[in-house]
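Project standup — Tuesday

K.O.: blocked on the structure for the chain from last sprint. Re-posting the sequence here as requested.
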Amino acid sequence: MTLFELKKILGSLLMPLPILFSMIIIGLLFIFFKKNKCGLFLCLPAILTLILLSLPVVTQQLISTAENRYSTFNKQKHAKLHYIVVLGCQVKPHKGRPANSQLGACSLARLVEGLRIARLYPYAKLVLSGFSINNTSSSVLLKKTALSLGLHHTRIITNPRAKDTAEEAKQLAYKLIDAKVALVTSAAHMSRAADLFKQQGIDVIAAPTDYYALNLQASWQQFIPNSEALSAATAHQHELIGSWWIIIKRLYDPESI
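H.V.: unblocked you, prediction finished:
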């Protein structure tokens, strides 16, 4: 098992659902086998937290700070652009489906924003980044989708080797330094991504997309638990852990990330 795989496993275990379900299961074991009330002190807070994190009115407050840190891309503020970097995200490899149907929601949102900006700057290159999953590269799927939507192949650059955002920034640095670069990623992820690129000497222009926007739901829906709110809470936790990981790595090896 590689360090990258270990990091991903540990990160997944630290998400809200695994933590809360573990608390509930341990609590139930105490209740049914130990016959004491200690289990209630695990079960009740876990159930309450799970309900709260599933409420749009609560989760929107968590995610909105990160999502609103950067404004959407505005062409009026940027006369020239050399590169549009679209960071990789979720893919669902399936050989019998077209490339666009193998992209997850966040991948599609990022690619669409990248293509939108590419149409505004006809001489800018579109850089599609993303690692291989089950021998299927997300950057290749992004490229195939972009080609099918009409972008010329000479405008596309792929970066299929990077496993995470830190590696994406490192591997692309030699090409992007001193260039005008728009960085496309999910709004909740933008702050951490921009920081990692800045560490490599690339001062990017933020182009956030893939907003949760839970506050736009009907007022009565704000108080009904749903999976989208829980997904937003998971994204928030993912970014927190990612930021802590960066801080820890920089403490013992400032040049590593």
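K.O.: great, moving the ticket to review. Residues 112 and 146 are 9 Å apart (CA to CA). The mean pLDDT is 93.
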